[in-house]
What we know:
This protein is mainly α. Helix content is 39%, strand content 9%. It has one domain (9-57): Arc Repressor Mutant, subunit A (Orthogonal Bundle). It is built from 3 helices and 2 strands; from the N terminus they run ααββα. The protein has a two-stranded antiparallel sheet. A hairpin with a 5-residue loop joins strand 1 (39-41) and strand 2. Helix 1 packs across helix 2. The longest helix has 10 residues, at 25-34. The protein starts with 13 loop residues before the first helix and ends in a 7-residue tail after the last helix.
Amino acid sequence: MSTQTSGLPARPSIRQAADYLNVDPRTIRRYIAAGRLRAIRVGPRLIRLDRENVVALGSPVGAL
Length: 64
């Protein structure tokens, strides 16, 4: 895991994931609805994500 994820908690919120990926929170909600990100509902309104899934979604594509 890279050092850039040190600020991302193990179970980030939608807002934290959006900030990490530099996208709008609505995009994260769309990713959840489409099955691209797995979400866990902790309470009636609280949704948390898995850090590894968020990091994998934001990883570079292709050879570097």
